[in-house]
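Query structure, 258 tokens:
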């Protein structure tokens, strides 16, 4: 097998939520594989810290950082254009940014429900549109990676808005894959299990929940952002050139048992 098919040398990637958690783990994997990466997030400080880390791995030209608020969906086309200008075009789009709101469903304010869906589902849709329009106009292929979840398949108490958004991501992967396959644009997803990230810190810090996760997952631990480096490189690379419309679950075996 020619291992060069996993190389991302000469490729560029935009990773939303790339300044922390799973998004940063994916950005690390992409720069290690040779891609030049633009990370994006709301916090300038977190973007700056992540940029230092990525440049330490692959040099000062390996990464750039942009700030954005994906809840403001009207601003997304201009944000995408800025990322494309900074990179000289975007070959790979990773929609990793996400938020949650934990409450029993009847107690969730509609404004919070709407915000979760805007960031987790509508923003990836709009960004993917921007990406596809640019690639189609240029006659170039591309790869989109969405971040799904165990909540794309099931739910837990107090996760209604998040569950709806991630169920939508599962179907969005399929819908976009079908629409854009004729143009060589592949669309796949990664479905994390329970991962130690800032988004899940309240769960990690709960001794009972922590013990339950370790007991429930066949591999016996929480995931880490580093666990997503390899699968992201695979999906972005020519090694996955005949793969589209799929979600790869990186969940420690969670969905394999009950």
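Result returned for the query:
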């Amino acid at each position: 097998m020619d291992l060069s098919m996993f190389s991302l040398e000469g490729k560029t990637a935009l990773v939303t939520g790339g300044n922390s958690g799973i998004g940063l783990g994916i950005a690390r994997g992409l720069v290690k594989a040779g891609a030049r990466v633009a990370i994006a997030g709301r916090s300038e400080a977190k973007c700056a810290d992540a940029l230092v880390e990525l440049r330490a791995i692959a040099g000062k030209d390996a990464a750039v950082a942009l700030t954005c608020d994906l809840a403001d969906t009207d601003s997304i086309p201009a944000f995408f254009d800025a990322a494309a200008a900074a990179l000289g075009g975007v070959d790979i789009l990773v929609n990793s940014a996400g938020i949650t709101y934990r409450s029993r469903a009847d107690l969730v304010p509609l404004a919070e429900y709407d915000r979760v869906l805007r960031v987790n589902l509508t923003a990836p849709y709009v960004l993917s549109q921007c990406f596809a329009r640019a690639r189609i106009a240029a006659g170039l292929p591309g790869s989109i990676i969405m971040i799904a979840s165990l909540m794309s398949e099931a739910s837990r108490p107090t996760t209604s808005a998040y569950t709806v958004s991630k169920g939508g991501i599962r179907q969005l992967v399929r819908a976009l894959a079908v629409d854009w396959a004729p143009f060589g644009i592949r669309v796949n997803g990664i479905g994390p299990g329970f991962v130690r990230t800032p988004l899940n810190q309240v769960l990690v810090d709960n001794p009972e929940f922590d013990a339950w996760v370790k007991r429930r997952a066949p591999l016996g631990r929480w995931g880490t952002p580093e666990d997503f480096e390899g699968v992201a490189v695979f999906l972005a690379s020519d090694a996955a050139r005949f793969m589209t419309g799929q979600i790869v679950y990186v969940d420690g075996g969670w969905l394999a048992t009950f």
